[in-house]
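Lab intake sheet, docking and co-folding queue.

SAMPLE TYPE: protein with bound small molecule
LIGAND NAME: NAP
LIGAND FORMAT: SMILES
REQUESTED OUTPUT: full 3D complex as structure tokens
PRIORITY: normal
SUBMITTED BY: R.K., bench team

The fields below were copied directly from the construct record.
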Amino acid sequence: MSRPERFAKLNFAPRHVLITGASGGLGKALACHYAQPAVQLTLWGRNESRLQAVADQCRARGSTVEIHSLALTDIDNGVSLLEACDDARPVDLLILNAGVSDIRPEGALTETVDAVREAALVNYAAPVTLATAAAARMAPRRYGRIAFIGSVAAHHDLPFASAYSSSKAGLSRFSTCLHAAMAPLGVGVTLVEPGYIDTAMSRRLDGARPFLISAEDAASRIAGAVAVNRAVLVFPRVFLVLKFLSALVPRGIAHRLLRLAEVKQRGQ
Ligand SMILES: NC(=O)c1ccc[n+]([C@@H]2O[C@H](COP(=O)([O-])OP(=O)(O)OC[C@H]3O[C@@H](n4cnc5c(N)ncnc54)[C@H](OP(=O)(O)O)[C@@H]3O)[C@@H](O)[C@H]2O)c1
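RESULT FIELD (auto-filled):
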């Protein structure tokens, strides 16, 4: 292990944490997890009143909190804002958590063009662009962490959620590439691939949510992985077993089985 790597591993205590998608769900749980005196939180989301409510909870725990309401589909605006936040106070930890699910509407032959475009932008293009902008600031400082919130959906060819599955798969590869590139420069990069978390996103699914965990439990596992600069965290671990088992199944058979899975989403 090089000196910068060792330094990054042993001395990580973030004083400025920026979280996207912090207006609810996992992002809110992450914000509350990191909220404490001497920690500044910068929380991004679209819904200003929900962001404000999360900020109030975090301030009650002693944090200084700034909120920004923006749509990540406007990537240039996101990059400018990230740079402005970093100019004001260097960002030690960037958590790219915002995401949208995309399930083919019931009875439709394909996913919708709008949903596919949105998933591509919010789940892949925005986080990889923002991560690059952050890494360009952190690397010269030889300090910082970036965490990507992917999904175990990246492990399989989901016929009913091609945009979600593939955007998260692209995110996974980007994250491990960036981990490899940044390790000698003292910047940690962690890919998080969760199974079902009890948030608004998974509650919209019409069906079982096996091995469901709470957003608070997920947040503390993620913080633990980030603290030790773990490259990849998959939880619950049963999904890691499923990933390796599915790699043994011939693709044609796997696709036939996956087509049988009737996953529906409410509110489409
Ligand atoms: N829940 C699960 O079972 C599960 C499983 C695996 C992975 N994940 C991943 O975990 C992450 C968090 O999901 P969650 O479960 O907490 O979902 P959630 O409750 O639906 O929260 C999603 C967050 O992303 C923000 N967001 C969505 N579209 C946006 C856009 N265009 N611009 C800016 N912000 C946007 C939302 O902001 P507003 O509400 O303010 O619009 C919200 O804060 C996502 O990346 C998701 O893919 C979730």
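REVIEWER NOTE: Residues 21, 23-27, 45-47, 50, 71-73, 97-100, 122, 149, 151, 194, 196-197, 199-202 surround NAP (CB under 6 Å).
SIGN-OFF: pending second check by T.M.
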